[in-house]
Amino acid sequence: MPCLNISTNVSLEGVDTSSILSEATSIVANIVGKPESYVMIVLKGSVPMSFGGTEQPAAYGELVSIGGLNPDVNKKLSAAIATILESKLKVPKSRYFLKFYDTKGSNFGWNGSTF
């Protein structure tokens, strides 16, 4: 049920996206406390993006979850995802925003129904 959607202006050509997806899945599951089998990661590259008036490497992410989010969890997620973006895509931690949404199960569709 947690879904992390990340967009970046960095090209993903030649990048091992599988390792990013795998690492992000594990981190989100462990920090939020949900099974990996319910975690979805969406990674979009080469997205036109400006941060602070420049087009240097940057990223924007949104994480939606049914429960499991709170200020402490959000800080841990922000730090962990920023580390992945910096190490794998060279996006500095200072050029990345992550927005958190804690939603109700009735607002999250899955398997032809809702949670």
UniProtKB/TrEMBL annotation:
Family statement: Belongs to the MIF family.
InterPro entries: Macrophage_inhib_fac, Tautomerase/MIF_sf
Family matches, as SUPFAM superfamilies: Tautomerase/MIF (SSF55331)
GO CC list: extracellular space
A Pfam family it matches: MIF
GO molecular function: phenylpyruvate tautomerase activity
Signal peptide as annotated in the record: none
Protein name: Macrophage migration inhibitory factor homolog
Species whose genome carries this gene: Carya illinoinensis (Pecan)
Gene3D superfamilies: Macrophage Migration Inhibitory Factor
PANTHER family cross-referenced by the UniProt entry: D-DOPACHROME DECARBOXYLASE, MACROPHAGE MIGRATION INHIBITORY FACTOR HOMOLOG
